[in-house]
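The instructor's notes for this session suggest beginning with a concrete chain rather than abstract definitions. Hand out the sequence below and ask the class to guess, before any prediction is shown, which regions might be ordered.
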Amino acid sequence: MLYTREIIRKIWDAQGYGNLAVWADGTTAVIAPGESPEKGGEAPLAIFKPIPLVAGFPMLDFATHDADLLRHIETTIREAGGEIERE
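After discussion, reveal the predicted structure:
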């Protein structure tokens, strides 16, 4: 199961290192630009670009409680066929 706020925390941590790939089993990985996001031949559900999503928040707590960001993460995962919930 994927959890919205956990993904936002990982997106926050990925800032400056690359994009965050998220798979249906809940695993994530920071993917450098130009790197293949496939893991074991399986493509991720979604790849999130940290800077546009969370760089505007002065603190992580603001990002994890922003209704628009929560909705964006959940919609992206659900549209890709994944299951996600808020913890």
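Then share the key points. The mean pLDDT is 96. The radius of gyration is 12 Å.
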